[in-house]
Prior knowledge:
The chain is of the alpha/beta class and 248 residues long. The protein has helices at residues 4-7, 24-30, 35-56, 75-98, 114-127, 143-159, 170-175, 222-234, 243-247, and strands spanning 16-20, 60-67, 101-106, 133-141, 187-190, 209-212. It has a six-stranded parallel β-sheet, with helices on both faces. One 3-methylbut-3-enyl trihydrogen diphosphate binds next to β2. Residues 21-26, 66, 70, 81, 192, 217 line the site of one 3-methylbut-3-enyl trihydrogen diphosphate. Belongs to the UPP synthase family.
Amino acid sequence: MEDFKKLINTDKLPRHIAIIMDGNGRWAKNNGKPRAYGHICGVQSVRTITEAAAELGIEYLTLYAFSTENWNRPEDEVKALMSLLVSTMEQELPTLIKKDIRLTTIGDANRLPVEVREKMQSCIDKTAGNKRMTLNIALSYSSRWEITAMAKKIAELSIQEKISPENVSEDLVSSLMCTADMPDPELLIRTSGEYRISNFLLWQIAYSELYFTDVLWPDFGKDEFYKAIVDYQKRERRFGKTTEQVTK
Ligand code: IPE
Ligand code: IPE
Ligand code: MG
């Protein structure tokens, strides 16, 4: 097996990697287990990839854990996911503190059960001063929800006469997104062989490199993660310019 870690150019690491962690249900089915078991095993991949990202020196890791649309899943699955969130937060807090990782979340927290909200907030508060890496969990998140919330804020600022239409710039829009203090992800990974974005970070991934793999999330380990970064580093990011312009 190729050692993908050795192939990574540590001078050209993406600052921000976002991941659509997909395929827990199919992984469970393939193993003759209930879907909830797939989610439990998916947590191990979250640990592994968080550790790998922090070790490499990635500054921001955003993980799509639960979408606005996921609220429409069967009630027992939603409940299982919410209680898994609480227990995972309880278990992982000491590791986050020890490894100097700051936890943040993006999404509509108002829809979360109070226990989940409180647990999340307590972990966010207890890790707020950590510096090594930001682990950003998208929870009850969808991009259209975020963009709509941004539009509401602009409308309010306008009514309060704090801004006028000519002040609405790309920078202002970015500053009103949930990811205001983060760089845009240079790399977006989706597991499980689905080729779609599923309402994730539409504004922020305008120029991200997309990487899709058939590997199901519970099977996504460090080597798969390194492989994605190596692939990303082979790409030429032109941002609308010509090859000659970006390679000179
Ligand atoms: C991803 O795995 C986890 C969540 C969306 C919460 P899925 O549960 O979507 O797994 P599949 O896509 O059904 O296999
Ligand atoms: C996207 O996965 C959301 C998360 C990974 C949390 P889904 O499994 O919900 O997406 P679709 O339904 O395949 O688009
Ligand atoms: Mg899925």
